[in-house]
């Protein structure tokens, strides 16, 4: 027995290659740029496909992590067309086993038990999801998959077959980026420069005009919080900017104002001490590859708790939000045959109408009324027609106030004629508001918003109605 064992060890030691090199030889995955590994030359795209298939073999976790790393490195060398071909390869292949799926479905129909349902769900999962999980084994695998989904988004319209791959990635990200893995951090002027630089780059609502502007937004009467994930170190997933003020803010320019002068730290601290309201004036998602994975609802609720603990005098938590869909909605309405509001079209086309007090005053009431109608009207298949409204109303906020010329920056005028909205987060009513909106689209709103939708007082009509009821 001993000589045999000795011979075996001698045979293994006679091969000078490492076990990793022997793995590549067994997979025949040598690329045309790798002269130090045995096996036939393989075009990069074919090599990526073979690596993907190898990941689903029965190899152990250690070798699987190495194959995953090699696959990601291979994908980085591919040109755009070859990467798209690889994505099609993932999307159209790696489907559930049709025979096993049919058998499981028939078994469940014959005996609809919990065990049968679990088995059916297991068999219905495409092997593509397991492949993506194994691609996540390598260092940096999560970031690579997030980048993959970002790139996929550019092709979904022209290549609908990629939607299956996109859906699988989203499905996995919802699990991998759930609230239990997220870390809330406050960002201030002492945060790493790389993180501050990303805030400037990722700001999606009110552009940050360089470092002086950023410093103003991080002053003592401001707060900024972001969610981070351990798999994406140093990369914020979403961040929120907060102003500490007295009363509801009606316009965003005073909150953003950065006149280039040195910030008076003592005055800003005094404003923070007097503040009774926290205004969430910008919420920006940072990772395009994580679209559809919800972070904002968790972020707002946790930031409210953080602010309450730090500044117990705060009694109101509200947003100052854009209405990005309003202008498109009103233009479509005015274009309808016989539209009564078509008369608005001409004054709205006047150059810089918002800077002319007379013109702006004439448009104020009709535009506020139409905006209230837009935000409270019948919900579509996805709820409110406005994406920002849908987000805040779905989180349990109340439509509190609609502000005239709240944002006179070019983007604000272009999207919503300068109108901005306060969504109020009343902590005692959040759950009830959320349930009402989720069940039938009921929009929780203030009496002030309701009053905007009344074109003109109609007491005579009300009086006649009153007499009829008495009769």
What does this structure look like?
The protein has 471 residues and is α+β, with helices and mostly antiparallel strands. It folds into 3 domains: 22-176, Malonyl-CoA decarboxylase, oligemerization domain (Butyryl-CoA Dehydrogenase, subunit A, domain 3, Up-down Bundle), CATH 1.20.140; 179-319, Aminopeptidase; 326-452, Aminopeptidase (3-Layer(aba) Sandwich), CATH 3.40.630. The chain is 52% helix and 9% strand. It contains 23 helices and 7 strands. The chain has helices at residues 2-13, 19-27, 44-55, 61-77, 80-92, 98-110, 114-124, 127-135, 141-152, 163-176, 193-202, 210-217, 253-256, 265-274, 296-310, 326-334, 345-348, 357-376, 387-394, 410-416, 430-440, 447-452, 459-470; strands at residues 183-186, 222-228, 238-245, 277-285, 316-319, 398-403, 420-424. The chain has a 5-stranded mixed beta sheet with strand order 1-2-3-4-5. It has a two-stranded antiparallel sheet with strand order 6-7. Strand 4 (277-285), helix 15 (296-310) and strand 5 (316-319) form a beta-alpha-beta unit. The longest helix has 20 residues, at 357-376. It is globular, with a radius of gyration of 29 Å.
């Amino acid at each position: 027995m001993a000589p045999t064992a000795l011979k075996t060890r001698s045979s293994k030691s006679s091969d000078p290659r490492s076990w990793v090199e022997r793995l590549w030889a067994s997979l025949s995955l040598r690329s045309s740029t790798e002269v130090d590994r045995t096996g036939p030359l393989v075009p990069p795209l074919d090599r990526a496909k073979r690596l993907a298939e190898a990941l689903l073999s029965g190899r152990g976790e250690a070798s699987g992590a190495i194959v995953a790393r090699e696959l990601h490195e291979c994908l980085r060398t591919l040109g755009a067309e070859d990467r798209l071909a690889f994505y099609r390869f993932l999307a159209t292949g790696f489907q559930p086993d049709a025979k096993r799926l049919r058998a499981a479905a028939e078994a469940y129909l014959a005996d609809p038990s919990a065990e049968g349902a679990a088995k059916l769900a297991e068999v219905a999962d495409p092997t593509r999801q397991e492949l993506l999980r194994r691609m996540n084994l390598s260092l940096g695998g999560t970031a690579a998959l997030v980048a993959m989904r970002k790139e996929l988004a550019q092709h979904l319209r022209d290549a609908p077959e990629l939607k299956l791959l996109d859906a699988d990635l989203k499905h996995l990200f919802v699990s991998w980026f759930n609230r239990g893995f997220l870390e809330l951090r406050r960002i201030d002027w002492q945060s790493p420069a790389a993180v501050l630089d990303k805030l400037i780059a990722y700001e999606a609502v009110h552009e940050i005009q360089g470092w002086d502007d950023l410093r103003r937004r991080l002053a003592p009467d401001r707060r900024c919080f972001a969610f981070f994930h351990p798999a994406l170190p140093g990369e914020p997933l979403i961040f929120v900017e907060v102003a500490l003020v007295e009363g509801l803010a009606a316009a965003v320019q005073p909150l953003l104002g950065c006149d280039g002068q040195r910030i008076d730290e003592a005055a800003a601290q005094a404003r923070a001490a007097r503040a009774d309201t926290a205004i969430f004036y910008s919420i920006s998602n940072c990772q395009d590859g994580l679209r559809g994975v919800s972070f904002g609802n968790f972020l707002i609720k946790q930031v409210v708790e953080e602010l309450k603990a730090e500044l117990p005098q705060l009694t109101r938590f509200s947003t100052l939000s854009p209405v990005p869909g309003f202008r498109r909605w009103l233009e479509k309405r005015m274009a309808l045959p016989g539209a009564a509001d078509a008369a608005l079209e001409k004054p709205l086309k006047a150059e810089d109408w918002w800077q002319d007090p007379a013109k702006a005053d004439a448009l104020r009431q009709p535009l506020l009324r139409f905006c209230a109608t837009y935000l409270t009207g019948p919900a579509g298949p996805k709820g409110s027609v406005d994406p920002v409204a849908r987000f805040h109303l779905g989180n349990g906020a109340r439509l509190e106030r609609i502000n005239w010329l709240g944002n006179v920056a070019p983007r604000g005028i272009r999207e919503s004629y300068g109108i901005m909205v306060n969504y109020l987060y009343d902590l005692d009513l959040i759950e009830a508001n959320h349930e009402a909106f989720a069940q039938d689209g009921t929009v929780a709103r203030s009496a002030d918003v309701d009053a905007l939708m009344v074109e003109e007082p109609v007491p005579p009509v009300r009086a006649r109605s009153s007499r009829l009821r008495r009769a």
